[in-house]
Amino acid sequence: MSADGQPALLRPASLSEALAAVRGNARLLPIGAGSKPALASPPPGFAAMSLCGISGIVEYEPVEYTFTALAGTPLREVAAALSRNGQYLPFDPPFVEAGATVGGAIASGLSGPGRNRFGGVRDFIIGVRFITGAGELVRGGGKVVKNAAGFDIPKLLVGSLGRLGAIVEASFKVFPRPRSTATLKVQFADLAGALAVVERVNAAPFDVEALELEPPGTLWIRLGGDQESFAVRMKKLAALAGGTSEIVEGPGEEAVWSALQPAFVPPSGTSAGGNLLVKIPMTPGRISEFDHLAAAAGAGRRYSAGGSVAWISWPGEAPALGQATPGPVPGGPRHRG
Questions:
Q1: Domain count within the chain
Q2: Cα distance between residue 260 and residue 172, in whole Å
Q3: CATH number at residue 239
Q4: Which CATH number goes with the domain that contains 109?
Q5: Per residue of the chain (337 residues), what is the pLDDT tens digit?
């Protein structure tokens, strides 16, 4: 405890100091840069250990499409290094501009709109080093892209929130960045029309980079590739989608997707007015029923990754979801679960 009664914050500047901190503290929670404090606040009686002092890109092999970085490395630094070689992290980690780190991205398990085509953070991590609660340094996976026998420890740590160990180093595979991107904005009068398009686009061979739904009926559909092909591809996509559409390109398109990162306000663990920011696994078939309940509770919401993730700005004073609207939900049969 500090002098003011707050939990102690340890700031190791090296791997040896981190090992000593873990061995000397039985109740310790590792944290990153604090861009997601709701996920990284230590429980009462626990000290926090910031790994921001253990930072830097250890290895980067552009030809091999892999890099290794220490846990406290800002994702902004990683993105800049990859960009110089026309590469990127397709899972689109959120809160990069807020200082999010490599270790925090793994521990939180959060991915952005770009996960729609290529998958989330767990699909790109290939190796990790971490400190166990017993103060042992353990390595799992490797630094190259290949099949490995045995238990996949790196994926186990994705979303672990520091409870399974203090991540100190990680290796990722990366992909070539699309030469150009463009976004089709499609608007409908209601949620049902937008959901019908989500189902059609998910089943069509468009290789959509990202697909976001903002209720009641706005879709953002991003394509990547050669700019010369966008006119034909966008024409076909617009014909499939229907509705009222427009194409967004250039700096305005980048601004759209920056605003569509998984937060309703700058990251603080809460949303506008002190609302909770909640991530919920979803399927397109469940969105209609869920959205009715969430709207009745006054919650802001957006559906990401082709309808597979719901981001909810949940009012702290609102009732539990199942109590939000008594009686049957209009529009079809109820789903279990």
A1: 2
A2: 24
A3: 3.30.70.2190
A4: 3.30.465.10
A5: 454 555 579 999 999 999 999 999 989 999 998 888 778 788 888 999 999 999 999 999 999 999 999 999 999 999 999 999 999 999 999 889 889 999 999 999 999 999 999 999 999 999 999 999 999 999 998 887 765 566 789 999 999 999 999 999 999 999 999 988 999 999 999 999 999 999 999 999 888 999 999 999 999 999 998 878 878 888 899 999 998 999 998 888 888 888 887 655 444 444 455 677 888 999 999 999 999 999 998 888 999 999 999 998 887 665 666 554 433 333 332 222 2
Among the listed residues 306, 280, 304, the one whose alpha carbon sits nearest the alpha carbon of residue 293 = 280
Nearest alpha-carbon partner for 50 in 170, 171, 167? 167
Cis peptide before 154 (omega within 30 of 0): no
Q: Report if residue 328 sits inside a domain.
A: no
- Whether residue 155 sits in one domain with residue 99: yes
* Domain residue limits at 219: 180-259
Alpha-carbon gap, residue 289 to 281, rounded angstroms = 14
Looking at the domain assignment, is residue 245 inside a domain? yes
User: Are 108 and 236 in a shared domain?
Assistant: no
Buried b (16+ CB within 10 A) or exposed e, 213-251: bbbebbbbbbbbeeeeebeebbeebbebbebebebbeee
